Amino acid sequence: MRNLKEDALKASDKKAALGPDIDLGSYHSDMVPHNYIEDLTSLSETDKKRMIISGVDANERERCGTFVQKDTTVIHSRSKQEGLEIIPIKKALEECDWIHEYYWKLASVDADKYTARAELDLHNGYVIRALPGSKTIYPVQACLYIEKDGLSQHVHNIIIAEEGSELHMITGCATSPHAKRGLHVGISEFYVKKNAKLSFTMIHNWAEEMAVRPRSVGRVEEGGLFLNNYICMRPVKSLQMYPTTHLVGKGATARFYSLLVGSPGSEMDVGGRVFLKAEETRAEIISRAITNSGNIVARGDLIGEVNGVKAHLECKGLILNGGSIHAIPELTGKADGVEMSHEAAVGKIAQEEILYLMSRGLSEDEATSTIVRGFLSVDIPGLPLQLKAEIDRAVEASDKDVL
Amino acid sequence: MLLIEDLKVELAGKEILKHIDLEIPQGETHILFGPNGSGKTSLLMTIMGYPQYKVTHGKIVFKGQDITNLPVNERARLGIGMSYQRPPTIHGVKTSQMVKICAGKGREVDVETLAGKVNFTDFLGRDINDGFSGGEIKRSELLQLMAQDPTLLLFDEPESGVDLENMSLIGTTIGQLLQRDFQIDPVKSQKEKIKERKRMGLIITHTGFILDYITADKGQLLFKGEMTCSSNPREIFRCISEVGYEECVKCAI
């Protein structure tokens, strides 16, 4: 433990490799107390509304557990299913010995000042663990909510899918209408064990003056599947993340999907990196970016280290109304017999497609909206229907803003 | 009725249609002949209202309304529909969704049943036109037209890239769309049924195969941007097949 603190201290001013530097001193990070609530429906209507657009339902319909953190404080944490543990991370660090086998074991505490900050001034976060062989029927939902204006929120999350388990998660991050400016630092470590399946869908709904610095690393063992979906379609001032996954066991698979919409004033630098370190591992990174005067950097990096791995990267961008999209797909093959490919395209909506739809009776706006929705509708195999519906809803909701 | 008067059209600054007069009365189907590059597709695209085809002279009147300057979607709403030769792929837009779009708001169509008629149910879940073969494109276009239910149907080479087996299905379907299929009717005589035809058609063909499946009232020959002949479609087709376009248009010069 002392080591972590020391390493973090040394890195407390270390600028990140990517993204604009953020002055941590310009935010406050004191604890903001909130009462624990047993019944989520007692949340204010405003909060409920903000949460639902991020896929977090206060009525817990078709959810098997919920974790909600408001500002710095956990206000709800409960599992409704046997074999599923939901524990605030501070509690886990105090009470569960096993957590130390996971805490900061994938992400580096001294990667940059944001990881350092999450160690030195941890507010809370969740540990969600599916016990061996357990299968969740419905998704678990987690919400990291910022209400206090000017707050720098520091969370650390650990998600563990034990051997043979199946876990589906939806995480919504959102700000209340009162919070205009803030910083969210979120560390996430994903452990997908042998033959386990983890799907993790994250929907972000930030505010125009929010800076967001997630730091995620995952590890997938033999026969495991890690499905990671990221959706950010609302304005954000600065978002930078480059989640990394290590496929370490035979036949492990990672699939990353991201849907981004860059609004005016938004700077997004989002990517995914997968190391294919074991035989027969597979990886796929698919991103769709639309800009409407925002600036988006869409990265993707696949590193094939052993013979016989297969990986594909697909990066498509649509410039609707000014702004920029910079697609940076990267492939590195380090062994004979790797099969890796990428496909990148940045452009505008083809006039031919608009006219085709207009000749079937749609107005120009309807045609454009149909094409944009189509562009954002990516088939994600293996995703439960409830989560598919949440993604569709997010796309639907953003539709009006984009056009 | 579709009426085109002394139409001149430019594409990218170049005059591609020099002088077009055309009249398709209600219930009639005309066949449009012409060598490659004569302007057949351009004429269809101009009738449909594609903005890159600039009308510099003359007018297009449909159902008594001057539509020369109407946008594409308003022409579609008035009842003009087109079967394209090479329609674009739209990723993420499923064929079934496209059929519903064609049916329009507030009109319910049974997508599965319609698709069954052109043997296309297996494609409903696929992105529209994505990787479709020649024959699949035609069936998809017909399916969309069935849902759209226009009164003037424009067909751009409905038989191109279609194998023999599908040709019969496509030909018969076009016949039905244009109300040109014959069935025994206990109440009405065939003559009455022909008289009741509302649908109009304009069909581009190179091979003439379509004439084996449907009857047509007139053939039109387009040559170097001008209508050069209007006559019995089979006669024009025969003339072109036996003596070629150059010889066939001589009578117009």
Automatic annotation (TrEMBL), chain A:
Residues 147-375 form the SUF system FeS cluster assembly SufBD core domain. GO terms for biological process: iron-sulfur cluster assembly. InterPro entries: Fe-S_cluster_assembly_SufBD (IPR055346), SUF_FeS_clus_asmbl_SufBD_core (IPR000825), SUF_FeS_clus_asmbl_SufBD_sf (IPR037284). It holds the Pfam family SUFBD_core. Belongs to the iron-sulfur cluster assembly SufBD family. This is SUF system FeS cluster assembly SufBD core domain-containing protein. It comes from uncultured Desulfobacterium sp. The lineage of its organism: Bacteria, Pseudomonadati, Thermodesulfobacteriota, Desulfobacteria, Desulfobacterales.
TrEMBL record, chain B:
InterPro entries: AAA+_ATPase (IPR003593), ABC_transporter-like_ATP-bd (IPR003439), FeS-cluster_ATPase_SufC (IPR010230), P-loop_NTPase (IPR027417). It comes from the Bacteria. Pfam families: ABC_tran (PF00005). GO terms for molecular function: ATP binding; ATP hydrolysis activity. The keyword Nucleotide-binding applies. This is Iron-regulated ABC transporter ATPase subunit SufC. Residues 2-249 form the ABC transporter domain. Belongs to the ABC transporter superfamily. Ycf16 family. Keywords: ATP-binding, Nucleotide-binding.
